[in-house]
């Protein structure tokens, strides 16, 4: 299975997880925080929405602007791509401080946050399909917090999906803590 196919499947799975796990929760549950310093389910999703508002259009522009001369099966990784992916992988348990404008902590959020997340997932699925016709190894996606640096199209797509995976897992853990608290 190609990397793009795997990213597509992961994105579909994340969309299904968010729909299944959070659709039936009331607003109070969606805003539950295990501790004052941690994020609620909606804050996890809003953090991802903020990234998607930037990366989805940037990726769409890059994919459309850099067609592949031939099919590229594998993604090459730059040092920046490797480091970025290493930081956001769900297996990496180290916590990182997020940029202030990407931190949704203490935001007033509602169900629209979940709907926006699901819409971004639909856009990302379309992008992943289109990316099969793009030069995935073209350095064309400016990094959100420092636009002079660029990720390759393929590694930027992987970064977005892996980052989403990390925070959807975080949101699922928040739900689990909420359920455990309700039982106690």
Automatic annotation (TrEMBL):
Domain DinB-like: 12-171
One Pfam family this sequence matches: DinB_2
Domain of life from the UniProt record: Bacteria
Protein's name in the database: DinB-like domain-containing protein
Residues that span the membrane, as ranges: none
SUPFAM superfamilies on file: DinB/YfiT-like putative metalloenzymes
Organism: Pontibacter actiniarum
